[in-house]
Amino acid sequence: MTTIKPFAAGSYLTTRNAAQLTTLKNQLNDLSTQLSSGLTAQTYGGLGSGRSTALSAQATLSALTGYAAGINAAQTRTNVAVTSLTQVATLGIDARNTLNNGLQSTPVNATAAKTNALNNLQAALDTLNQSVAGNYLFGGANSSTQPVLDADTILNGNGTQIGLKTFVANQVAADVGPLKNGRLSQTYPTLDSNGVPINTKITLSDDPSSQVSPRSGYVITGASALPIAGGIAANYVSGSTGMSNAVTIDVNQQPVAGDSLTLTLQLPDNTTTTVTLTAAASGTTPASSSTGFAIGADAAATAKNLNDALTSALSASAGSTLTANSTARAASAFFSAPNATTTAANTVVWYQGENGSTDPLSTQSVQVSAGSSVQVGVRANQPAISNVLAGLATVALGMPSSSDPNAAAIYSAISGKAQPLLSSADTSPGTSSTGALPSVQDTVTQLSLASTRMSNAATTNKASQNTLQNTLAGIEQAPTEEVVAKLLDVQNRLQASYQVTASLSKLSLVNYIS
Questions:
Q1: What are the pLDDT digits (tens) for 183-234?
Q2: Residues contacting residue 362 through CB under 8 Å, at least 6 positions apart
Q3: Residue 124 and residue 392 in contact, taking contact as beta carbons nearer than 8 Å
């Protein structure tokens, strides 16, 4: 008779016992592995329903680790940037205070101010080339290129392109003109063959090119004589487009001491200055040839004295007020490049970094969480920084030597132009389409706040990381005490099962009868 093996007598019981033994053996192996490795399972599939949670937690932990690395690197860069910009702001503030204090001191130490400003300018330029781990801090989105040329190239050029010194000198020369009087033409009364003036009229006119952009030199915008019915008359005529503005000054009779002549002159930046000459009593000498003139023996002699004084006054004004204006304008234009009209073809461009139209802060950002990033970008040519550099350059290149007879006036004029530029260290330099432009100190504050945000994010991320690690440990790690208890239980059950199975395997009819 043929017997179907799976359905043979006793086969089911035997199969079930074998299966139970195998199950217990597998459990024993799993628990032994858990005890040795400390893990619940060797694969995510072995975690059962916890595998989805474990996979999600691992992904989040990996992201948090990346955020932590990014935050750490960004904080280092930001802290160095804060230190560097603080130094630039300090240089600007100190230079401004020194200029202001210098106005109160006698004698004016122009040479010291000039030397200090040049040293501070070079220090500021070097500071703007700071880098961390090979990444430059002040190049906006471009962190791989040195953002600022070296100080020597900026000041002196590179052989084919002029530097700041020549750029400023060219602008000053263009403004003061060949006669050193602001490009004005002055005509003295006509003389007879004996050198005696035929009339007592003096004419003064400006250069028509001074009215056309780019502006250079003085533009005459007004003239007046006091008292109105005094011995001096001033007739101002505004020229039409492309024509000179002119003033005719006539000593039609002898003035008296205290009578005065005032000219109003417009500078290329549309600000104005005045030149006033006051008559001094006959036989006396004016305190300064650029502020007064002596009353002569007759109207002709007085006209000659007035003409000479006017020549001296215009030269002094051009050498101080106009020169200071030229220096500051040229320095500002240079350090605004490539945002301004400075041409790279003939002038070095000091800033080599990224120069987009976006907010500088947005040029560099660090992801601090899944839905949040912190902006930490800076450009070395931001308006406030450029202004501080221009202010330092104005002092460094515009201050006179201590031997200059007009040193006090030049110092005052340079100080008047440099201080507003240097104030950008801690005062907003103006407004843009998006609102007030930040000062250097404002940018320091923005970066400091960004650093604080990153620190707070790092703290939050660390707490989340700890929570996730605890959750993951509860899923992936096998508690030693629990595993040992289970292992002992399975071992006991397996041993008992082996013993029962062994006993049953010895049963037979002979053993049973006996």
A1: 999 998 777 777 766 778 999 999 987 777 778 899 999 999 999 888 999 9
A2: 375, 377
A3: yes
170: which residues sit within 8 A by CB, 6+ positions away? 162, 330
What tokens appear for 221 in the block? 């915008």
Residue recorded with tokens 């694969």 = 43
Residue written as token pair 């037979």: 508
Q: Rounded distance, CA 487 to CA 32, Å?
A: 7
Q: What angle do CA 354, 356, 361 make, to 5 degrees?
A: 85
Q: Is 188:146 a contact under the CB 8 Å cutoff?
A: no
Q: What is the DSSP letter of 149?
A: -
Contacts for 161-167 with beta carbons within 8 Å, 24 or more apart? Answer: 161/344, 161/345, 161/346, 161/347, 161/348, 162/346, 162/347, 162/348, 163/347, 163/348, 164/331, 164/334, 164/350, 164/393, 164/397, 165/397, 167/330, 167/333, 167/334, 167/342, 167/347
Pairing of β 260-266 and β 246-251: unpaired
Q: Is 143 exposed, middle or buried (0-12, 13-18, 19+ CB in 10 A)?
A: buried
Q: Which residue has the tokens 């009209």?
A: 341
Residue 39: what residue type?
L
Phi, psi of 3 (to 5 degrees): -110, 130
Band (106; pLDDT cuts 50, 70, 90):
very low
With respect to CATH, is domain 61-148+351-460 assigned 3.40.50.720?
no
Q: Taking the CA of residue 379 as centre, how many other CA atoms within 13 Å lie in the half-sphere pointing to its CB? A: 28
- The bridge status of strand 272-280 relative to strand 292-294 is parallel
Question: 243: helix, coil or strand?
Answer: coil
Summarised one tens digit per residue, pLDDT across range 459-484 is 998 888 887 766 665 555 555 555 45
